[in-house]
Amino acid sequence: MMRAVAALVFCLASFTALPAARAESVIAALSEKVVEIRSNFVGTEIVLFGSVERDGETVGRAHGYDVVVVIEGPRRDIVVWRKERVAGIWVNGAGIEYRNAPSYYAVLSNRPLEEIAGPVVLRRKGIGRDYLPLEAASEESEETVAVFRDALLRRKEAQSLYFSHHDAVDMLTPSLFMAHIPLPANIRTGGYRAQVHVFGDGALLATSRVGFWVIKTGFEAAVYDLAHRQPLVYGLATVAMAFGVGWLGSVMFRRN
Predict the structure, then answer these.
(1) What is the pLDDT of residue 56?
(2) Is Membrane set as a keyword in this record (predicted)?
(3) pTM to 2 decimals?
């Protein structure tokens, strides 16, 4: 009898500990799943669209929904150097390596982030310039890491690879939304991930994830594959081409 009571108490506690079912969910999709880079590629944009779905027992939010889209590109290690002047020449001095930093980081929302959620939620989800998690490979003081981190962010922002647009998500209806994702000409190839966060009254209600690929096609793809898969052949071909162009130039402009 005591064992049965204990089992019943355990079951009730387990059910109590289960998270409540989400009242809202988000469905999102992209206009393109593959972005092709050719010789004339100067950048492009793709469209993300979606909707916020409510279950039958949930009423609409009094202040509506907020949508934040975070897009991250392929990750790689990035070294940030401090320029130092030695004998009148600027050279690379001390540096910090950041591991697995996203090559592309964009935050799109329908209004400023500070009006959507508090810093605790934004930091936990890594949303926004100030809360992007960047891991330094070496142990340095907090002040030094902060200086190099800011330099990395400014460099990426100058290259249009890191940015935040606080009016880039259009709420077409209280539950339908659309966002244009700009992709500059200098983006890296690889897989990209978009996280769609839906907020209501400052609380995170639902998250959905979609992704797309950026690939090289045509002659550029052939050259890229040759350089990475057969570097010796690529180097010999480059040298032979340089000699050929030089010889052809000497023949064409030879003086009689």
Answers:
(1) 60
(2) yes
(3) 0.75
